[in-house]
Specification:
Layout: E1 20-25, H1 31-43, E2 51-56, H2 58-67, H3 73-80, E3 87-92, H4 107-124, E4 131-135, H5 141-154, E5 160-166, E6 185-187, E7 193-195, E8 201-205, H6 217-221, H7 226-237, E9 242-245, E10 250-253, E11 256-259, H8 262-276, H9 290-294, H10 304-314, H11 322-345, E12 350-354, E13 357-360
Parallel strand pairs: 1-2, 1-4, 2-3, 4-5
Antiparallel strand pairs: 5-8, 6-7, 9-10, 10-11, 12-13
Helix pairs in contact: 4-5, 7-11, 8-11
Amino acid sequence: MRWGEGMREHPQRERPSKPTVLLAVVGQSPQVITETLYALVRRDPSARIPRIVAITTAVGAARIRETLADGGWLARFCQDYRMPEPALEVDVAADADGQAVADIHSEEDHIAIADACVRWMRLLTSDDAIRVHASIAGGRKTMSFFLGYAFSLFARDEDEMSHVLVDPAFEGHPEFFYPPPHAREIELADGQCADAAKARVLLAEIPVLKLRARLPDSLFAAEGGYRQTLALADAAQRRPELALDAEQRTLVANGVRVRLAPALFALYCAVIARGQAGRWPGGKLDPIRWEEFAAFYPHSLATGHAERLQEGAFGIGGELDPQRFAEWRSEINKALRAALGSEGARPFEIVKVGEGRFGLAGVNPHMVNLPPRRAVGQDRGR
């Protein structure tokens, strides 16, 4: 098969009007930046690309400075194609000691690049005013992998990832950075001359499984590196495992700790206890009773607060008020989603499981060890 056979550029379609930040991993061939710019502008001449972020090594940064920066090929490209010159930010990955990674030779060097990819994807996707175009065309294969993986975790619907395919005769040529709008002859490796304006550069968009909606909000707000982010993401994808820590009023859902207010923790335990007894509770039908709730309430029942809670939420009949049940259920589910993400929280949420009844969405209650029940009334009169 000859170059380009069976390949076609992604068809032009209506795209968001937001400005685009080009995020790229770059090795010793900075050409990937201008080649990607060329492909983006060719696809959409109205594209606004005010900023470029290049993740690289110290060696790669030196090559960028020599070829692209300070009136180099980036400025020439923008003049040729009559577009504002983007701000170029070069981020040299640093190891755990803060030392710049010269080149990628060790596991520590790989992790430094991975941390940079996670950091930039987290930062850029937190800005709703921009969209991200991630290029994995440059650098070593592991650099491309790490940016691709970070993209899969953080990318939003409007963000894109791509690779550029360059005519083999021009790929990696030290004098080729993009096809110019006018004829420009360069000498190829075989000694022949060719017109750079006729070089073929195709933008190959890469479809990616975007996991953002399935991941906990804490992953997007944290400052952890690649390994910490991977651990959080992995926890959100596991088969649901639930443990209860009464002393800390904490649910441990797939290894992620979710701390609840005392009343919320007691209600969650009471719902599981009902499930173990074979009858999920309802809001109005067969509601949670005070003694079921109080058996798991983590504070002393001899306090005025507990008495007010009993009177205000359970009333004279000792049954949990339906509106209070709905409010507490909503607060529990909200806390789970904040810690685990929408998809990750789903198995642990209290949801409607039958006509007027509520239980855990995806956790078998018989697989959960409840904390010891207290005898209701044991704190009274102390």
